[in-house]
Design goal:
2 strands; alpha+beta; elongated; about 130 residues; Putative activating signal cointegrator 1 complex subunit 3; two-stranded antiparallel ribbon
Length: about 130
């Protein structure tokens, strides 16, 4: 039995209880400023991991974002869901050799903190 589903193109923020398409503008216009638990945030929140990072485990941060859109009971339900999501830390590295490497073989760590959007300047050249 399917309880909840979303289209692939839909925002992952829509998996939060009581959050619908008309509420997404709140996350896109939110600004963290330069102080607080998420001083490194860029301000625009487009997915669940960005929202979790922006809130920094503080329910009052989430409440300040959504208080004008949801009543307190629904806000609490949404925060309860969000605060119990698992946090997964992924680390990646590539082992191999590169033509310009002095030793020949080496291991290259891959940064996973950037967004999932591909930037042509960040491709890693591998030897086939």
């Amino acid at each position: 039995m399917v309880i909840q589903g979303r289209w692939l193109k839909d925002s992952s923020l829509l998996t939060i209880p009581n959050i619908e398409h008309q509420h997404l503008h709140v996350f896109r216009k939110w600004s963290s400023g330069t102080k607080g638990p998420c001083a490194g945030c860029h301000g625009v929140i487009e997915c669940l991991p960005e929202l979790i990072h922006a809130c920094g485990g503080k329910d009052h941060v989430f409440s300040s974002m959504i208080e004008s859109e949801l009543p307190a009971a629904k806000m609490k339900q949404a925060w309860n869901f969000l605060s119990h999501l698992p946090l997964i830390d992924v680390s990646l590295s590539i082992k191999g050799w590169w033509d310009d490497s002095v030793e020949g073989h080496s291991e290259l760590s891959i940064t996973t903190l950037s967004s999932d959007k591909r930037n042509d300047n960040r491709w890693i050249t591998l030897h086939a």
